[in-house]
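Folding Task

Wanted — backbone structure
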Amino acid sequence: MSTNQSDGSYAAPEGSGGLGKQIILLVLVTTAAVLVYKAFFSDGGGLSNLFQDPKEVKLTYVPSDFNPNLDEEATLRVLSEPEAYKKEFDDIVYNFNLSLLYHVANRMALPDSLKRRLEPEYQRHHAYLKSLYFNDFVTLKDTTANLYETWYNDNSNQAVQLFNEVAGKYTCFFVTQIMATLMKADGGKFYAKGKNVDTPCGIAIQEGLQPLVARLKKKAEIMDFSASRGMLKDRVRKGIAELATYELRSRLGLDKTLQYKFLGFSISETDIRVEAISVVKAGFKLDEYFDVTFSPKKGIVYVTLPQPVILSHEVYPKVDKLDVGFLAGITGDEMNRNFNELRRQFRQEAIEQEHVLDKAKMRADSVMKMLLGPAIKSMGKSLKLEIRYQNPNPSSQENGLEDKMPAENTTPNTPNDAPQSSKGKKKVLAN
C-alpha cells in the first residue's frame, strides 16, 4: 500500500486560525464601544447634548441680605466726576457687580464649590463691561456742567439716576450669562422652591440694584444740599489758561401748568412761564494740553490743542408769569427744577443742533494763525502752520511724522493719551 506525501510542507487543520481573528475583532469592537460611549453618552462628553435634553436644575431659594460693600459718600463723589476718577469708577463697577453675583448665589443656596468660581467667571466679562459702563455713563452725563448741577442741588442725584440707567441695561445680561455657565443649564430650565423665588435677573435688579440706588438717592440729596449751601460762602480763586473761540447766545421759554386734583378732577391750577437768555462759550483748556512741534523736512509747525469743551455757560432766567391757584402752589424746589431744565435744554441745543464744539474748532484755526503767525514767519517765510487736536483714541494718532524741535528749546513731547497729570505742560516756539 503506497501513500502520497508532500515535499515536506505542513498544512494546519482547516478552521484552527479563525479563533485568533475572532479575538482581535472582539477587542476592536469593545474598544470602539467604549469610545462611542464616552464621546456621546457620558456626563462629560462633548457630543452628549446632541442626544440628550438639557438638564433641569433644581434649586432651593433661601433668604439673604445684600451687602454691596461700597462707601456711599465716596461712590457719589466718583459718580459725580467720572472722568477725574476713572480707576475708582472701574473699581465701583467691579465690586458692585461681583456683590450682585454673590447675593444671587446666596439666595439660590449654591454650594461653595460654585461660589468660588464666581469671581474668575466675572473677570472674563469685566474688561468689556467696565468700558460699556464708563462710556455710556459719560455720554449721558454732562460732565462739564458740574458747577451748575451743584448750584441747583442736582449733581449727585443726577449721577445716581444715570448709574441706575446704565447698570440696569447690563445687569441682567451678565448675571444670567454667568449663572447659566456655572450651573451648565444652557437651554434648560431652573426649577426653584423656597421664599421669594425669582429669576437671577430679578433678584439682582430688585434686591440688589434698586435698594442701593434708593440709599444713594437719600445720601445724594444731603450731599447736594450741603454742596449748594456751601457755595454761598465760597470764593474760588483759580488760575486758568482758556481759549474761547465761539460764543452762542440764545433764548428759550418754558411754560408749565401745575394742577391740584381731587377725585380725578382739577380744582386748582398754577401757571408759570419762565424765559431765559443763554450765553455759551466754547473753546479749549490750554492748561490741560498744548503742544507745538516742528518738522523741518515738511516746513510745517504743528500746534496740537485739546478737544473743545464748553468753557462757560451763563443763564439769565426771568419769570414772565406766575399765576398761583388757591390750592395748587409752587415750591422753591419746583422753581429750581424749572430753571435747571431750561439750562439743560440750552446746552443740549448748543451741542447737538448748533454744533458749537465743531464751530470752535473751525475758529481755532484762524485764531492760532493770528497769534502764532508772526512768530512762525520770523523763523522762515516758507513755514506753514497746521492745527491738530488731541486724539482720545491713541491707536489712530500719527506717530513719528514730526521731528522734535531742538532739546534746548522744548520739553519732551507729551503723548496724546497722557494722563491729566501733565496739566500745564506747554511748548513755545523759539526764534
User: Anything to note?
Assistant: The CA atoms of residues 306 and 390 lie 5 Å apart. The beta strands are 56-61, 189-194, 242-262, 265-285, 291-295, 300-305, 309-323, 384-389. Residues 242-422 form one domain. The two ends are 134 Å apart (CA to CA).
